[in-house]
Design goal:
Oligomer: heterodimer
Order of helices and strands of chain A: HHHHHHHHH
Number of domains of chain B: 4
CATH superfamily of the largest domain in chain B: Nucleotide cyclase, GGDEF domain
Number of helices of chain B: 21
Strand content of chain A: under 5%
Strand content of chain B: 15-25%
CATH architecture of the largest domain in chain B: 2-Layer Sandwich
Structural class of chain A: mainly alpha
Largest sheet of chain B: 8 strands, mixed
Shape of chain B: globular
Distance between the termini of chain A: 42 Å
CATH class of the largest domain in chain B: Alpha Beta
Distance between the termini of chain B: 53 Å
Number of strands of chain A: 0
Helix content of chain B: 40-55%
Radius of gyration of chain A: 19 Å
Chain lengths: ~180, ~575
């Protein structure tokens, strides 16, 4: 639907100092930048820092990025990844759990089905959680953008997505929570 | 099937200030009696406006507007009730002062927001969460005798209230401040948000011509004519009536009545409006407005008929009745009676939402006379309407077209979206956007349509919403719990008769339905708790064969991840210095 043309227009307007153009870019890519920082397991505070730095860098450099306007999402995703990694520090990268599974167990009172559902998400392999976190962003990012966010070859993303979703589906059925709804 | 739903309600939270001091002043028995009388007053006031007193907490009263059923004007009802409670407590205080030498000082907070409402059959217990907390916080921030209204409520009642802003405050456990308003007055006859009935009429020439011809026919006799205009909320029924009234006045006496959203004796009020207008129009009418006891049709039906026939001798008479879906049966009986017995030169025009025949099963198509179905505007007309409302300076053609597409031709939705956008954005042309938030008034209208469904209908609609705006009924049947499966198509057809759903174009498949409006589908979907949404998506993936499978699995994962603690994106990033040559430093 001509998304790249929209982005070019927004970028040109933003570079010319038009606030609406800037807001349009934030609306279009805000979730992508945020989910990239989250995919690397930054906590919400760190994630907000990394995202903010990413946008500041864009504001500084937008005027010099004319050749990149069409691929601004890729630039933003790559920058968000770099900023996330910088914040994490190389040492933590190796061990960090992507998408930082919450430290707490489900809220008191959540048991049975709830807890099982929650485990399905928590126990999905790290690379899947990371991939799905970025892939399922709204609006959906392009494979190039996902590739830039996660430093993966773009060609393998569709297959990886399908494999992760099947893994998720398999786990859902293993917990037999997909049968009939409760009570009915 | 789960029957918890996410819905928007309005909460009125009232407490008695200084009740400890009161306890020291009064004998416990006297105090108890005074409080009991206060609770009775509160319960009565809330009930009168359709609220449910959910609980008494110590001396506090919490009333909820929107359970068990939502109304499109719940926020206004809540504000009216809060205001009336204040007045009634003042009256109660005069008695208490006389009898006990004390007065109750009541503080009130009103807030509107999303709650997870429980099963109505189980006493509609509900988890209040944030919405209730903020209402309680507003109550504590209010002074004695004051009503503080939260921002979300204010947005829904802005045209009916006089308020003054108070300093925003930060509720406990929150970071963002909440705006609040001190309620000064409520206009009792105003809508929460005024309609722009002054907007130029767009389209509808066919309908106006049809009404003209009916007036010709009525004027020529031999008998009276009845026409019923059916249309969805906001599609332009009132606007059409108004346009027709302007035209018809050249050759007829026009009387118009409208049914108020709620209250007792709606029919008597409507007849009262007609009689009062007739009284201003002719001598013969003055005698009738005496006792309008609509509980006894004998006393009124014949009188109204004779009155209209008398007036019709001088010139044709047009009677316009708006919002008749809200009326009691007796008003419909009156219309039917007039249609059957009244003489020539009388045209009755009734406007109602499509739910009318469903609400009054006896009132069928025959009783409706000639039927005019008011369809949504086509996109170009809706864009013209949008441009007319805001002017081309503020609404460039591209944005007007987007607004029209978003509203899918519903003039009220156009109006509300523009109002929202114009309030939010800086003055200047409105840029094309895309993902506009649904205006709260539109959200309320859509919620009412869904809220009126039976449990089975609701289940089917929710399952359909998981499949999509357009869906094959067999997919929905496959998702439905076993006992419902075979009945799914029947339920869908019944919903189609009520125009909540439509039969989709053949290009979408042979057996496809679609939601009448995208917002109906979205609202049905969003009312499903996220956990259930996730499970339904996984089940949909099991039943579907095509590329939709990955979509459903992805959605299911997304909702579970959100429930498992994935943080939503914080408030939009701070605006950096404006880039580019025209840079202008703003703090």
């Amino acid at each position: 639907m001509g998304a790249s043309i929209d982005v070019r227009d927004l970028a040109r307007a933003a570079a010319a100092g038009d606030q609406h153009g800037w807001d349009g870019l934030v609306e279009r890519f805000g979730e992508l930048v945020w989910s990239t920082t989250r995919a690397y397991g930054l906590n919400p505070g760190e994630g907000a820092n990394a995202a903010q730095t990413t946008w500041l860098l864009l504001a500084e450099q937008l005027g010099h990025l004319e050749d990149q306007h069409e691929r601004l999402g890729v630039w933003l995703a790559a920058t968000a990844r770099r900023e996330s990694l910088r914040l994490l520090g190389a040492a933590r990268v190796a061990t960090a759990a992507p998408n930082s599974p919450p430290a707490t167990e489900p809220a008191a009172g959540a048991q049975g089905r709830e807890a099982l559902l929650w485990r399905v998400v928590r126990e999905l392999p790290e690379h899947c959680r990371r991939l799905l976190r970025v892939l399922l962003t709204v609006p959906p990012p392009s494979h190039e953008e996902v590739s830039a966010a996660l430093d993966l070859p773009a060609a393998g993303i569709a297959a990886a997505r399908a494999a992760c979703l099947q893994d998720f589906r398999h786990r859902m059925s293993n917990f037999s929570i997909r049968t009939e709804p409760e009570g009915s | 099937m789960q029957r918890e739903v996410r819905k928007t309600v309005s909460v009125v939270f009232s407490d008695v200030a200084g009740s400890t001091a009161l306890a020291e002043q009064l004998d416990p028995e006297s105090l108890r009696r005074a409080m009991t009388r206060y609770f009775e007053v509160a319960r009565r006031v809330h009930q009168r406006h359709g609220g449910v007193v959910e609980k008494f907490i110590g001396d506090a009263v919490m009333a909820v507007f929107g359970i068990p059923h939502v109304h499109e004007d719940d926020a206004l009802r809540a504000v009216r009730a809060a205001c009336e409670l204040r007045e009634e407590v003042a009256a109660l205080n005069r008695e208490l002062e006389r009898e006990l030498g004390v007065a109750l000082h009541v503080r009130t907070g009103v807030n509107t927001g999303l709650v997870l409402a429980g099963d109505e059959q189980e006493g509609h217990a509900f988890v209040g969460g944030d919405t209730v907390n903020v209402a309680a916080r507003l109550e504590r921030a209010a002074g004695a005798g004051e009503v503080l209204v939260g921002e979300a409520t204010h947005r829904l009642v802005a045209d009916a209230v006089l308020v003054e802003p108070v300093a925003p405050f930060v509720p406990r456990g929150k970071t963002a401040p909440v705006a609040a308003f001190r309620l000064l007055e409520v206009a009792w006859d105003a809508a929460g948000l005024a309609r722009r009935l002054d907007a130029p009429l767009v389209g509808r020439t066919g309908e106006l011509d049809a009404l003209d011809r009916l007036l010709d026919r009525a004027a020529a006799g031999p008998a009276c004519e009845l026409v019923t205009i059916f249309g969805d909320a906001g599609v332009g029924k009132s606007r059409l009536l108004r346009a027709f009234a302007e035209r018809a006045r050249e050759r007829a006496l026009v009387l118009s009545g409208g049914c108020p959203p709620y209250g007792e004796a709606v029919a008597a009020e409507v007849v009262g409006q007609l009689v009062a207008q007739a009284g201003r129009a002719g001598d013969g009418a003055r005698t009738l407005g005496l006792a309008l006891d609509m509980t006894d049709p004998r006393s009124i039906f014949r009188g109204v008929r004779l009155l209209l026939e008398t007036l019709a001798r001088a010139r044709p008479v047009v009677v316009l009745l708006d919002d008749v879906h809200r009326a009691e049966q007796v008003l419909l009986d009156l219309v039917e009676y007039l249609h059957a017995f009244a003489g020539a030169r009388l045209l009755l025009v009734v406007a109602a939402r499509r739910e009318l025949p469903g609400r009054w099963p006896g009132w069928n198509v025959r009783a409706a006379g000639t039927v005019l179905d008011l369809e949504p505007l086509v996109e170009a007309e809706a864009a013209e309407l949008a441009a007319g409302l805001l002017g081309p300076d503020r609404l460039p053609a591209g944005t007007a077209r987007q607004v029209a597409a978003w509203a899918e031709g519903n003039p009220l939705f156009v109006e509300q979206l523009l109002r929202d956008l114009a309030d939010r954005e800086d003055p200047g042309p409105l840029e094309p956007g895309g993902s506009w938030p649904v205006p709260p008034a539109v959200e309320a209208l859509v919620a009412v349509e869904l809220d009126r469904l039976t449990a089975d209908e609701r289940t089917v609609v929710e399952l359909a919403s998981v499949v999509g705006r357009v869906f094959d009924w067999r997919s929905v049947a496959a998702l439905a719990p076993a006992p419902l499966g075979p009945r799914v198509v029947g339920v869908l057809l019944a919903l189609t008769r009520r125009n909540l759903l439509q039969v989709a174009d053949r290009e979408h498949g042979e057996d496809a339905f679609s939601f009448r409006h995208r917002l109906l589908r979205d609202a049905a979907y969003q009312a499903i708790p996220k956990r259930e949404r996730a499970i339904l998506h996984v089940r949909a993936a099991d039943h579907l064969q095509d590329e939709a499978v990955d979509h459903h699995l992805g959605q299911a994962y997304r909702y579970l991840a959100q429930l498992a603690g994935d943080e939503p994106r914080p408030a939009p990033v701070a605006r950096p210095l404006r880039p580019g040559p025209a840079a202008e430093v703003t703090a």
